[in-house]
Amino acid sequence: MGYTLTQSTPDHSSLSRIRDHLPAEVHVEVFRWVLRRVEEAGLLRGRSVGVDSTTLDTGAAMKSIVRRDTGQDYQQHLQELMEQETSQV
Description:
By secondary structure, the protein is mainly α. It has one domain. The protein has helices at residues 12-20, 24-40, 74-88; strands spanning 48-51, 54-57. A two-stranded antiparallel sheet has the order 1-2. Strand 1 and strand 2 (54-57) form a beta hairpin.
């Protein structure tokens, strides 16, 4: 991200306000970008990944993810999280 170990980073509230103005597509692309970087760095090991306490196969396509407890797909779950976040502001 370009910050040194001693340099201050943006306050989380600044990032939250910026995030609130981004469309869902941006959130999806950032999530995918982070997963690619983690995989390239060799940090993905094992057979599953935990996201929001949901266990997923690491090879699962994002479009095929469905929460067992609610039946929501990834897009629906992300939309609900965004709506909850904006209603708290």
